[in-house]
Amino acid sequence: MEVVIVPDAVAGGELIAETIAALLSRKPGALLGVATGSTPLPVYEALAAKAASGAVDVSRARICQLDEYVGLPAGHPESYRSVVLREVVRPLGLGEDAFMGPDGAAGDIAAACAEYDRALAEAGGVDLQLLGIGTDGHIGFNEPCSSLASRTRIKTLTRQTRQDNARFFDSPEEVPHHVITQGIGTILEARHLVLLATGEAKAEAVALAVEGPLAAVVPASALQLHPHATVVVDEAAASGLKLADYFRDTYAAKPQWQGI
Ligand code: PGA
User: Fold this and answer.
1) Residue 249 annotated as catalytic
2) Which ligand 1 atom is the nearest neighbour of the CA of 39?
3) What are the angstrom distances between the C-alpha of 183 and each of 22, 59, 68, 142, 246?
4) Whose CA is nearest to atom 8 of ligand 1?
5) What count of other Cβ atoms lies within 10 Å of the Cβ of residue 46?
6) Is 145 within a domain?
7) Is residue 173 part of a domain?
8) Active-site residue, 67 included
9) CATH code of the domain covering residue 23
């Protein structure tokens, strides 16, 4: 696992956008797995700016969703489908045909989960999966004690996650209890995992995920199993890392052509 400590969220966004741009120049039709929440927004802003300036051609990029609330009415502005279309797909000038996600309004949720896992594989697999981390260590909506081998399935949110996400809704009770999330096993099939964490509130979860033991109780620790996982953190999110100086030295000495 590589840990890159950046000065702030904007620098993290720029670094990851550069990585996505480099991927798209090698593989214009790459499948990009995107995350929701506040943390990845600087990535999407930096990537949209690169696309607008002509620094990268995103016209053949494909976008896929990591997770989704269950039971929000179709078109609800906080469904992750709506969020990804608003924050990622449209700003990049892409159409809905470039986008795929699980159907959180399906009558048969189990079938919708299995169908999404299949669709990701049929699409050739995810080339780069962007991840956030919950204060409880979740990735996607894989809450603590999720199976490290799990596939896309329904999960129940913890009280903490519902509280963390209440800011997006008119009232805390409106945050759905259930979600569909790519499983940890599904996420681990992406070719490159890039987790971005910013702010002091994520420091403990980052330290446990990066330097703690591999454990289902810290779902993000599953990144330790992946051959190409990059954790990008700002100084505040890095503040619990014992090996921070080693990570700084390693990145400072890294040949630039290697990228992340
Ligand atoms: P956040 O969410 O970026 O809004 O903190 C991260 C997550 O829950 O994965």
Assistant:
1) no
2) 3
3) 27, 29, 12, 7, 31
4) 134
5) 21
6) yes
7) yes
8) yes
9) 3.40.50.1360
* Tokens standing for residue 135: 């204060």
Q: How far is the CA of 87 from the centre of ligand 1 (A)?
A: 15
Residue 2 lies in a domain: no
Ligand 1: residue of 133, 159, 196 to mutate (most ligand atoms within 8 A of CB) is 133
The domain total for the chain is 1
Residue 240 within any structural domain of the chain:
no
Residue 149 structural domain: 15-128+137-196
Give me ligand 1 centre to Cα 51, in Å. 25
Instruction: Answer whether 6's CB lies under 8 Å from 43's CB.
Output: no
Angle between helices 9-26 and 41-53 (to 10 degrees): 50
**Ligand 1 binding residues, C-beta < 6 A:** 37-39, 132-134
Span 83-106, pLDDT tens digits: 999 999 999 999 999 999 999 999
Closest CA to 238 of 228, 252, 248: 248
Centroid of ligand 1 to alpha carbon of 257 (angstroms): 30
Longest CA pairwise span in the chain (Å): 53
Q: Which of 68, 76, 138, 192 is catalytic?
A: 138
| Ligand 1 atom at minimal distance to the Cα of residue 202 | 5
pLDDT averages per 10-residue partition of the chain, 260 residues: 98 98 98 96 98 97 98 92 97 97 95 97 98 96 98 96 94 96 98 98 98 98 98 98 98 92
